Amino acid sequence: MTNNITQRDAFWNRVYEMAKVNRNIVIVSADMGAPSMDRIRRDLAAQFVNVGIAEQNAILIASGLALKGKRVFVYAIAPFITLRCLEEIRVQNGLMKIPLTIVGVGAGLGYEDSGPTHHLIEDIAIMRALPYITIHSVTDSTMAVAVAEMSCSMKTTNYVRLERKKLPDVYQPGADFSAGLSVLQESKDYYIISTGNMTHRALEIAAQLNRTKHQIGVIDVHTLPINGELLVSTVKGAKRIVTLEEHFLMGGMGSAVCEVLADRQLLIPVKRIGMSSAKGYCYEYGGREAIRKYYGIDKESVAKTVVDFFK
């Protein structure tokens, strides 16, 4: 089990083990450190490149190495390795199809007290708009290990969203994530569809409400684009669906779910719960739960919205 380490350390520990065997694996870091990366820097110095605080350059260097046949992981704080590098990613990866694994730590409100410059609440909408890029919205450290392994066989770019702080494991070692989504709890009538760290909140809410007359299922969408056929076959016949994410509602995972249902003419009422862009960016402090309350995605607010909608 990987309960006692962060997703970041679980991910890079696995990359280290693979890189010892496969010398084609290269890590490009934009001046980022971590206990799990110290071994890579120390033991595999020829496979580690620190470009400094220059995320755009990191994407360009990583792309050049990939063109030479290297399997490249490029790493920085999540908002800076994505939004700051959007044109580079669009051209090198979306347009030229150069395969990279882009690893960002601190997705969502992971850097809660660093202010809105460090809050990453638009990345799913932006990155899923680019062709040839897969998003892995990681739920726990077990999944982080599996995604590290999957990254070494992907022929297109993948973007890995890692939670900054420790979370309990949802999955058992050896779990298969190839389907792109996992049904954690089944239901005939009601589903909460969540992604990333909010899957933990979805399970809490479902457990709370399942003690009442409701029987609520939970689906973890951990890969985008969404596996539409599997999602539709799972929720077909359900009465209502709630989507839950720590992300702006516009273009987020909830929007992707609605697109899947609409494109397949599956008419199920959907309530999207996330961060309203009408609230703008949050300059308030007090920790992650305080910011979630500002946006109405704290546990109490989510539970009330779910109950009201499922009524």
Describe the protein's architecture and organization.
By secondary structure, the chain is of the alpha/beta class. The chain has 2 domains: 7-162, Rossmann fold, CATH 3.40.50; 181-310, Rossmann fold, CATH 3.40.50. The chain is 39% helix and 21% strand. The chain contains 12 helices and 12 strands. The chain has helices at 7-21, 35-43, 55-67, 78-82, 86-95, 123-127, 141-151, 198-210, 228-235, 253-263, 288-295, 299-310, and strands at residues 25-29, 48-50, 71-77, 101-105, 133-137, 157-162, 181-185, 190-194, 216-221, 223-224, 240-248, 270-275. Strands 2-1-3-4-6-5-10 form a 7-stranded mixed beta sheet, sandwiched between helices. β11 (240-248), α10 and β12 (270-275) form a beta-alpha-beta unit. α1 runs parallel beside α2 (35-43). It is globular. The two termini are 38 Å apart.
Give the C-alpha Rg: 19 Å
- Total E-strand runs: 12
Number of helices: 12
Structural class: alpha/beta
CATH fold assignment of the largest domain: Rossmann fold
Given as residue ranges, the uncertain stretches (5+ residues, pLDDT < 50) are none
CATH superfamily membership of the largest domain, which one?
Thiamin diphosphate (ThDP)-binding fold, Pyr/PP domains
- Summarize the main sheet: 7 strands, mixed
Strand content: 15-25%
Order of helices and strands: HEHEHEHHEHEHEEEHEEHEHEHH
Kindly, what is the distance between the CA atoms of the first and last residues, rounded to a whole number of angstroms? 38 Å
Strand order of the largest sheet: 2-1-3-4-6-5-10
Average of the residue pLDDT scores: 95
Helix content range:
25-40%
The CATH architecture of the largest domain can be named as 3-Layer(aba) Sandwich
